[in-house]
Amino acid sequence: MALYKKENNTSYTLGITLTIELLKTKPNLVKQVYFHSNFEKKEAYELIVKLCQQHHINIVTSNKVFNVLSSKDNCYVIAEFFKFESNIDNKANHLVLVNPSDSGNLGTIMRSALGFNITNIIIINPGVDCFNPKSIRSSMGAIFHLNIKYFDSFDEYKEQFLPRDFFPFMLKANTKLEDIHSLKREKNYSLIFGNEATGLNDSFLNVGSPIIIKHTNKIDSLNLPIAVSIALYEVSKK
To answer: ∠92-182-122 over CA atoms, to 5°?
Structure first.
């Protein structure tokens, strides 16, 4: 068992909650489950054993695996699973992330998206790996309920998913977030956000209807997961 690498065809859930979520939602992708010898045989343990038995998944007790994969002392179960590809639903609303670079941020965004029922996420390369165990952990298992697909450019994505309303979120935009509802023309929309450090470049001022989330001048900008969550909340109102 080796440390996770992006080029691997498998990834890991580190911990009880994530492993149970994986076993409940995508058991056919689970390659193997590892138990630490200190994993107490209580309710969570029994549930994981039951789910593994139901789906004929092998369980291995090996502390060595935990020494390699997890730096946390309270991690007692790890599942290795095969990465999966998703199909994006053209009839659904989308969240588009252009060049996201932080695993923890991506995981938090995935959880917020699921919470507001946006289940199709597009990531424009270069972008952080959604299957990095850090992303999975931050998503609290939300990743197993989402369709996520990578595109090499925004134009490539846009060409495949017309017609729809595009709403880039930019500090240079003039339209306030609360006015977004009056701008909707098509059945479905895409909320577009840029990189944590640089945001979207000026070319997105010519894409759809750029939106700004107004805040005081005491800060220069909102961090990406908070901005996404605010936008998701607003658009979910109606």
So the answer is: 30
Instruction: Pick the closest to residue 174 from 215, 219, 211 (CA basis).
Output: 211
Rounded distance between C-alpha atoms, residue 212 and residue 210, angstroms? 7
77 and 98 belong to one structural domain: no
pLDDT value at residue 124: 98
Tokens representing 218 are 């005491």
The list of the chain residues with pLDDT below 70 reads: 1, 238
User: In the chain, what are the helix, strand and coil shares in percent, each to the nearest 5?
Assistant: 35, 20, 40
Strand order in the sheet with 147-151: 147-151, 120-124, 94-98, 189-193, 165-168
- Asked whether residue 152 is domain-assigned, the answer is yes
In 3D space, the residue among 35, 21, 235 whose CA is nearest the CA of residue 137 turns out to be 21
| 202 DSSP assignment | G
Helix (H) and strand (E) counts in the chain: 7, 11
Pick the closest to residue 163 from 191, 148, 193, 185 (CA basis). Answer: 185
pLDDT at 71: 75
Residue 151 backbone dihedrals phi, psi, to 5 degrees = -125, 150
Mark whether 63 and 101 lie in a shared domain.
no
